[in-house]
Amino acid sequence: MSESSICQARATVMIYDDGGKKWIPAGTGPQSFSRVQIYHNPGTNAFRVVGRKMQTDQQVVINCPIVKGLKYNQATPNFHQWRDARQVWGLNFGSKEDAALFANGMLHALEVLNSMPDSGYSTLPRPVSNGPSPEELEQQRRLEQQRLEQQERERQERERQEWERLERERMERERLERERQAASGQNRRLWNLYQEPVSYLLFLPLNKYLLNHCSKSTIHFSGHTVHMLNCPKSLLCTS
């Protein structure tokens, strides 16, 4: 029976360089994402990991059998690793969802393999590569945690700036509305004043006289009886 893919995820395939104590991209050319799949052969109940770059040439960057006894280490939410007889493999996933999907497929494969009897089945050979030390794994976890915290701070800062922008716009709208209402009220007052029956407009030469008699509601001027408006010092009057 032919192989079938039981899961696939998007990840950068890495190899641990024991000499340089660092991770390097698998394959040739610039680092890029690959489509990493777990294949299952129902006839032999064998599993393997195959990764091809998501480019035109679809370069194969990993073709690694999954064997009984393999230790799959989820070092961070986005970075998982394991070792085979030759080297240590690492997958830097494009998202937590990709990482979780692939981890479920890998753990399922290991569960099937570990449930098989030992006779006639090759177990994982002794690795020739030491792989990253516990201190290096801890450093990876710290770096991943710092990256996530930085992303959270940036998200909160964007939300704060957006809230301040909306608040400024709201205050500006309220200010414009107050000015509009004030102008509308002033126009209404002027219109009402225009509708009042006005007989005389007392000009500037009479100001002093009016101020001296502002407490009176009726004054006599040039043979006319003049009734003051409500405001004692108003220049408008009716006869």
TrEMBL record:
Assigned GO CC terms = cytoskeleton; cytosol; filopodium; focal adhesion; lamellipodium
Gene Ontology terms describing biological process = actin cytoskeleton organization; axon guidance; neural tube closure; positive regulation of actin filament polymerization
List the residue ranges of the region (Disordered). 121-181
Protein location: Cell projection, Filopodium; Cell projection, Lamellipodium; Cytoplasm, Cytoskeleton
- Per UniProt, residues of the WH1 domain are 1-113
UniProt main location, coarse: other
Q: What residue spans carry the Basic and acidic residues bias annotation?
A: 138-181
User: Domain of life of the organism in this record?
Assistant: Eukaryota
UniProt GO molecular function:
actin binding; profilin binding; SH3 domain binding
Sorted alphabetically, the keyword list is: Actin-binding, Cell projection, Cytoplasm, Cytoskeleton, Phosphoprotein, SH3-binding
Q: Which family does it belong to?
A: Belongs to the Ena/VASP family.
Q: What is this protein called?
A: Vasodilator stimulated phosphoprotein b
Organism, as annotated: Astyanax mexicanus
Upper classification of the organism: Eukaryota, Metazoa, Chordata, Craniata, Vertebrata
